[in-house]
Amino acid sequence: MSFNVLIVDDSNAMRAVIKKIIAMSGFKMDECWEAGSGKEALETLSHAWVDVIISDINMPEMNGLELVGRLKSDELYKEIPVIMVSTEGSAARVREAFVQGAQGFIKKPFLPEDLRKALYEVIGVGTDGEYTEGTTNADELDF
Fold first, then answer.
1. Domains in the chain: boundaries
2. 50: closest CA among 76, 24, 11?
3. What are the Cα distances from residue 4, in Å, to 26, 52, 80, 128, 132?
4. Burial class (CB in 10 A: 0-12, 13-18, 19+), 32
5. pLDDT tens across 28-78, in order?
6. Which fold has domain 3-132?
7. Whole-model pTM?
8. Neighbouring C-beta atoms of residue 127, cutoff 10 Å
């Protein structure tokens, strides 16, 4: 199984680095969308479905914490897991990210394994990239 990812960072270079690290990590990525701010991320979500968002905190127009807050207040987007990636790794900043609704936080710089682990944890898959819990028999579904 592969996943659609949205990378949100105001630096083109950092978005490229994160995309490359995801590829190097072994994470199974299908589509990769990019946005330069929280505002652009919301515009991207209006026409693209993503399984997970990786977002910087400090960006113009709408920062990553504001983006998470907007996502969590929207019925359509509130279930999309968000991993914050930032050079700011103080306990207060990490706590603020989780209070806003982030499901993961990685301090820059990071290793490919760190990112893969965070991605798998927030999406709920095992180390092989496949769903491991909550498997349901098709006869048990009610739709």
1. 3-132
2. 76
3. 14, 7, 11, 17, 19
4. middle
5. 899 999 999 999 999 999 999 999 999 999 999 999 999 999 999 999 999
6. Rossmann fold (3.40.50)
7. 0.86
8. 10
